[in-house]
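User: Just a sanity check before I run the rest of the batch. Below are the structure tokens for the first item. I only need the designed sequence back.
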């Protein structure tokens, strides 16, 4: 019997598919003529004035994008509403894979611009955090589906992934730990942070 899942799955807001943005015109090129007897032409004077700036592309309609991941999450939500958990699992795994790639790539970009360009470093770091947060939420939903299917052996590794990413100090990490407690993987619930005396620490 399919367990009702609306008690632990928050609705996901669907996002409309954006159309691809046509790239701007080709950047014109100009060659500098060098004469043996003439002085070099200043670069400012040699720069063409009719150059059309290249506009960045738009990947929102592709699978490798935040919007692409959101579409997968929306499809998973629809499958859950139809009690088709196997279909939901497919969409959630696809979303997780996409978001993991995006998070790692944006982290790499952020590291490349440390000490080089603070604005780009901050922008890419925020994108990495957003992708990681969405990935962890999708992972949590997937773990709950496996719990509903009585498959704790598949839920536990996913919950541990969330804890490694979120840590037990954040809400999602605490929810993941609570699931581990309810499953029986851990024997004590999380009751908040405590200070352990040095002499009481395990060696």
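Assistant: Here's the designed sequence for the first item:
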């Amino acid at each position: 019997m399919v367990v009702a899942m609306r008690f632990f799955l928050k609705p996901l807001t669907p996002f409309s598919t954006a159309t691809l943005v046509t790239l701007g015109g080709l950047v014109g090129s100009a060659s500098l003529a060098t004469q043996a007897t003439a002085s070099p032409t200043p670069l400012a004077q040699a720069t063409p004035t009719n150059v059309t700036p290249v506009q960045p592309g738009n990947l929102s309609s592709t699978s490798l994008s935040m919007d692409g991941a959101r579409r997968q999450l929306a499809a998973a939500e629809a499958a859950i509403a139809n009690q088709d958990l196997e279909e939901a699992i497919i969409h959630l795994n696809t979303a997780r894979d996409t978001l993991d790639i995006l998070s790692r790539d944006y982290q790499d970009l952020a590291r490349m611009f440390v000490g080089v360009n603070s604005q780009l470093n901050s922008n890419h770091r925020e994108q990495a955090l957003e992708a990681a947060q969405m990935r962890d939420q999708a992972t949590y939903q997937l773990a709950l589906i496996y719990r509903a299917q009585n498959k704790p052996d598949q839920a536990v590794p996913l919950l541990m992934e969330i804890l490694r990413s979120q840590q037990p100090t954040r809400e999602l990490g605490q929810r993941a730990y609570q699931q581990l407690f309810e499953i029986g993987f851990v024997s004590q619930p999380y009751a908040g942070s405590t200070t352990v005396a040095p002499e009481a620490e395990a060696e």
